[in-house]
């Protein structure tokens, strides 16, 4: 048995050869399923904006269904769905506004605060602020320990430039 191609969008597999794959990828069902997949990731504002440009589907509103489904060029948006999308948009806007306010509060450092932070030197570090390291018991009996395994001393912290991470 030869190789099989599995399409994640359609949940379908078939013999993998160029002709079969080309026919499948150009097929109506595949394109419809791919569109449904990507539409599930669209934001509510885009969905609502696209739907407002369409006219209402008479068949959908009269019978409750449409033969064309999501491929219909008319709108199938119900009032409940529209209200749900508007609510989601409003929540996203509130969240974004809250985030921008928090960012602005963080950015309102004065120039003096910034300069004070940048001008701090390591020489102002007190002995109490530097953690005290000691050699583990297992390494104490080993002669000529490499420098990378020796614990740092207070002097090592005094002679370094300040580094700001992040």
Detailed description of the structure:
With 166 residues, the protein is mostly helical. The chain contains seven helices and two strands; from the N terminus they run ββααααααα. A hairpin with a 4-residue loop joins β1 and β2 (12-15). Helix content is 48%, strand content 5%. α3 packs across α5. A two-stranded antiparallel sheet has the order 1-2.
Task: Give the SSE map.
Elements: E1 4-7, E2 12-15, H1 18-26, H2 28-39, H3 44-52, H4 58-63, H5 79-107, H6 111-119, H7 154-158
Antiparallel strand pairs: 1-2
Helix pairs in contact: 3-5
Organism: Potamilus streckersoni
Domain C3H1-type: 51-79
Main location: nucleus
Give the low-confidence spans. none
Characterize the largest beta sheet: strand count, sense, and whether it forms a barrel: 2 strands, antiparallel
Number of strands: 2
Give the overall average pLDDT.
82
First-last Cα distance: 54 Å
Rg for CA atoms: 32 Å
Question: What is the count of distinct domains?
Answer: 2
Classify the helix fraction into a percent range: 40-55%
The number of helical runs is 7
What is the approximate shape? elongated
Give the H and E element order: EEHHHHHHH
Secondary-structure-based class equals mainly alpha
Strand order of the largest sheet: 1-2
Percentage of β-strand residues: under 5%
Descriptive terms for the model:
2 domains, 166 residues, Zinc finger matrin-type protein 5, two-stranded antiparallel sheet, mainly alpha, zinc ion binding, elongated, 7 helices, Znf_CCCH_sf, single chain
